[in-house]
Amino acid sequence: MSISLITSFTLTLLIFSYILGDNVLFRLAVSAFVGLTAAFTTIAIVRSVITPLFIWDNLNQNEIGARLFVIIIAGTLALLLLLKPIPALKSLTNLALAFLIAVGTAVALVGATTGTIIPLISDTTALDFDADVWFIINGIIILIGVVTSLLYFRYQARQNLDGAVSNGRIIALLRYIGQGFIVVTLGAIYATAILTSLTVLTGQISVLLSR
After folding, report:
1. In a domain, 96, yes or no
2. Per-residue burial over 23-36, b = 16 or more CB atoms within 10 Å of its CB, e = otherwise
3. Does 185 fall in a domain?
4. Which range of residues forms the domain containing residue 148?
5. Tens digit of pLDDT for each residue in 63-110?
6. Helix, strand, coil percentages for the chain (3-state, nearest 5)
7. Is 174 exposed, middle or buried (0-12, 13-18, 19+ CB in 10 A)?
8. C-alpha angle with apex 47: 45 to 50, nearest 5 degrees?
9. Which one of 28, 58, 77, 158 counts the least CB within 10 Å of its CB?
10. CB of 93 within 8 A of CB of 81?
11. How far apart are CA 171 and CA 178, in angstroms?
12. Is 111 a domain residue?
């Protein structure tokens, strides 16, 4: 029986100890996970991002100039972030943070738009009436679910004569339908998370007992 197997099984049990409430064992497992994740991320960045920047073999002058430009910009931003504890340089540190947040937001926005929103709209509106009847029904259900779920988060209301604010009957009905879709979706996600956790636990026990 290997040490890695015993360690993984022990950490799994420590994570599942959260069922009994927040405790020291769970915090120990989470701290170990966060530390290992930070170490792995640091090693991956150094080996895959930073180290290749300083390998200039078989590069022409333009490529070397581009590498130097990237190194200077990245080094300046990293230095500004490291100087954050100095109050006098707070404005410069905020500038570096603003740059990082802007770039991260732009990348996330492009990824969400091209990878999620556009394919979701395409799949939602793609109803092939020449296909099987169940395929058409599924497409209609998806379309209704998406529209009513979006309407649930749209706080469109009107003020009555007595001053009370309420939704129209049609909007209220559509919001109730959207709420039902959201509840079912969250329930399915929660059930999937529980089943996945139990699968991991039973897999660890099965591997441990088979050794």
Report:
1. no
2. eebbeebeeeeeee
3. yes
4. 127-211
5. 888 888 888 888 888 888 888 888 877 788 888 888 888 888 898 888
6. 80, 0, 15
7. buried
8. 65
9. 58
10. yes
11. 10
12. no
Q: Take residue 137 and report the two structure tokens written for it.
A: 């029904």
What CA–CA distance (Å, rounded) separates 37 from 202? 24
Q: In terms of pTM, does the model score above 0.85?
A: no
CA distances from 18 to 11, 23, 96 (A): 12, 7, 38
Q: Is 178 exposed, middle or buried (0-12, 13-18, 19+ CB in 10 A)?
A: buried
Closest of 6, 9, 27, 31 to residue 18, by C-alpha: 27
165 backbone dihedrals φ, ψ, rounded to 5°: -105, 130
Which H or E element spans position 71?
helix 61-82
- Please report which helix (H) or strand (E) contains residue 166, including its range: strand 165-166
Domain count, the chain: 1
Six-digit token pair at 87? 């109050």
For 129-156, how does the pLDDT look when each residue is reduced to its tens digit (9 = 90+)? 666 777 777 778 887 888 888 778 766 6
Cβ pair 10, 201 in contact under 8 A = no
